[in-house]
Each structure stands twice: as structure tokens, then as C-alpha cells.
Amino acid sequence: MSKNLNLPDFALLTIRDITSSAKEGRVGILPISRITWLKLIEHGFAPKGQQMIGRTLGWTVQEVREVAEKISRGELKHLKLWAKK
């Protein structure tokens, strides 16, 4: 992961905590964009998250760590997330 997390595995993170944005100059936990995170969810490679407040979704630190491990091992490189259906 980009950032060392000293949080318990059950702590909830928002999409802004997880993803990075060059446009906003924001570095998230993972070096991926918001749209990439949403595509990973859509294709079943990341969990859907749980509702926190209103429309805000959250993912546990453990869930994010598991996705980060898959990325670091190169398990998701073969994905064609942008292919038209």
C-alpha cells in the first residue's frame, strides 16, 4: 500500500481515503483512481463496501489490504477494465 496504515483491520475507509487523484493532488492508500476502484468492484475484484452515512460507502482496512496485496502481486494486471461490453 502507498501509505502505512496503523489502523485496526475493522476501521472503515472511504473512497477518498483509498484512491488517489492527480487532479486534486491527493495521494490515497492505493495508487489507483476512483474510477479504477469502482471498476474493480464492478468486476468482483474488490468488495462492494458497506453503507456508512447517507450515500457514503466504507471498506474495512482489511478489505483494502487484501486488494492492495493482489495489486502488488500483479494478480490484477491481466484485467481489461476498460473493454467495451
Task: Walk me through what this model shows.
- This protein has helices at residues 15-18, 34-42, 61-72, and strands at residues 12-13, 50-51, 57-60.
- The protein has a three-stranded antiparallel β-sheet with strand order 1-3-2.
- The N and C termini lie far apart (31 Å).
- It is built from three helices and three strands, in the order E-H-H-E-E-H.
- Strand 2 and strand 3 (57-60) form a beta hairpin.
- With 85 residues, the chain is α+β, with helices and mostly antiparallel strands.
- The chain has one domain (12-72).
What order do the helices and strands come in, and which of them pair?
Elements: E1 12-13, H1 15-18, H2 34-42, E2 50-51, E3 57-60, H3 61-72
Antiparallel strand pairs: 1-3, 2-3
Q: Got a strand count?
A: 3
The helix count comes to: 3
Topology as H/E string? Answer: EHHEEH
Question: Percentage of helical residues?
Answer: 25-40%
How large, in whole angstroms, is the Cα Rg? 13 Å
**Which structural category fits the helices and strands?**
alpha+beta
C-alpha termini separation: 31 Å
> How would you sum up the global shape?
globular
Features:
single chain, 85 residues, alpha+beta, 3 helices, 3 strands, 29% helix
Describe the structure in brief.
This protein has one domain (12-72). The chain is 29% helix and 9% strand. It contains 3 helices and 3 strands.
